[in-house]
Amino acid sequence: MPISAVDAISPAFQHAKQQLLQPFRFTQWVRLALVGFLAGELGSGGGGHSSFNWPSMHHQRGSEQFFGAAWPSQLAHHPAMLAGLIIFLIVVGLSLTVLFLYINSVMRFILFDSIVARECHIRQGWVRRRYHGLRFFVWQLSLMLISLAAFILLIGIPLAFAWAVGWFDHASEHVLPLVLGGILLFLLFLALIVVLAVVHVMTKDFVVPQMALEDISAIEGWRRLWLSLKAEKGGYAGYIAMKIALAIAVGIAIAIITVIVFLVLLIPVGGVGVVAVLAGKAAGLTWNVYTITLAVVVGCIMLAVFIFAVALISVPAIVFFPAYSIYFLAARYPALAALLWPSPPAPGAPSSPSPEAPPLPPTPAPLG
User: Fold this and answer.
1) I need a labelling partner for 220 at 20 to 30 A (CA). Which of 125, 177, 253, 313 fits?
2) Each residue of 148-166: pLDDT tens digit?
3) How many of the other CB atoms lie within 10 Å of CB of 89?
4) Dihedral sign of CA atoms 325, 331, 332, 333 in order
5) pTM for the full model?
6) Cα–Cα distance between 111 and 108 in angstroms, integer?
7) Residue 270: is its pLDDT beyond 90?
8) What pLDDT is stored for residue 73 in this prediction?
9) Contact at 8 Å (CB) between 300 and 290?
């Protein structure tokens, strides 16, 4: 029988507790932290930022020569170089976005397998789920492009119309339409964000398991999910509301722990940084291309350490929330229920040792 969103909390909590603590294995925590981070399962905790105090104006041959004279003057006198740099950064940014979107798509299936099997194997999971991840990647990329087009239609076209008719040039003469139009655009923007967020949550929670277990497309998974939504609107609405409440509560807890860990890490790291700066000043070092590159590399390393620490802190949430959606869906999806609760062998049948993790369906061969 389908269970409510509240009833699914207890089995999900017990599942996370057993998977993470019975027994406790640090290597599994590390793998789950990596998979959860790449799958986008990390909540937005306390993303602290650090400010860097540049040296004063006394060292003009250092920072000022590098920032104030070298790059800006070259780019100002060479527009083609500036245009090429901008195009290069755009191409690199888009390429990285597509790459990480594909990695995110595959990791979503690896995370699902890790929760169902109570065991995380990244290498085997990557080989097993590349085909499913590619199909999910196409869905996510298509949804991203559709979302961009929707933003352009709902937000960009009204703004272009207001600019074309001169409302921005004579704003004082068009206060009322600008205010009312701004409120309407904000409401449309907010509604679009909510719709896209719900679609994203529903896809990763309820469509991905169908794609993993039955080798169907995301569109077919949504067709089935839509029929379930129409038949049980209250149950799924309660799930969304409960997940929002749980996400807020867990996010606050993780943010508090993250701040404490950040402060603990800041003491030794800050001490080493102060010693390094003082030693550099004593040695006569100034800000140039080498020292700035070194500072950027060290900053990236420290940022990676901080993100890794946050991911480790978030492992219980990384396991709990997928388990929560799995137990909610399993009562409505027989194929998933069969994995979580295998049927006992028939009387008189030869007994065989049950595997530690329920078997997953074979990976289909890529088309072509």
Assistant:
1) 125
2) 998 888 888 888 888 887 7
3) 10
4) positive
5) 0.76
6) 5
7) no
8) 52
9) no
